# Entry
Amino acid sequence: MIGQRDTVSGAHFGFTDRWGGVSAVPYEELNLGGAVGDDPGAVTANRELAAKSLGVDPARVVWMNQVHGADVAVVDAPWGDRPVPRVDAVVTAERGLALAVLTADCVPVLLADPVAGVAAAAHAGRPGLVAGVVPAAVRAMTELGAEPTRIVARTGPAVCGRCYEVPEEMRAEVAAVEPAGYAETSWGTPAVDVSAGVHAQLRRLGVRDRAQSPVCTRESEDHFSYRRDRTTGRLAGYVWLD
Ligand SMILES: [Zn+2]
# Structure
């Protein structure tokens, strides 16, 4: 259910694993993604189970329509009947409002400045790393009063640099933007390490309290992995402030 949890000065961070939900194969069990072909009723039930397990109100969780870009939405309430915007980061200054990011190999990035009361969730895959979605989220937090040196950053389970094989040109394109993303697979071919790239971006922005999940989604049977299974569920990362 909740594979990893952390609380720092009233800022809460949680990442799910794939177990404890009601979805059937190949989305078993806790698929939280609404656009992957799973039964919508199962996804709603899973979102309620995950929220309950975290101690948040499922009606006070803000989801995104993620598109591998770098756009950021500032929110102060759940979307309700409004269309869910096509963004890869959401930022809020509303305490008690939970922000959620869906992934299955991409890096879920959770950020919070407990002093300013500002939180953000971002979806950073290879395109998001290159496009700078995480720096964009930090900028949006700063505009709401956050200080990078006070931001607590947690990144969740993602495909690791030893598993994420890409063509040579793609690795070069990533490394030109973010050298820390340069990697090699365990079998000796070009690869990208998105988590390392995200942490390098955060470090340069002045974010000091950073932690990275040790879990590789592609190697873990307890996590969804798009690169391993193609048709599969989505994990979620949640951040909120007391
Ligand atoms: Zn791996």
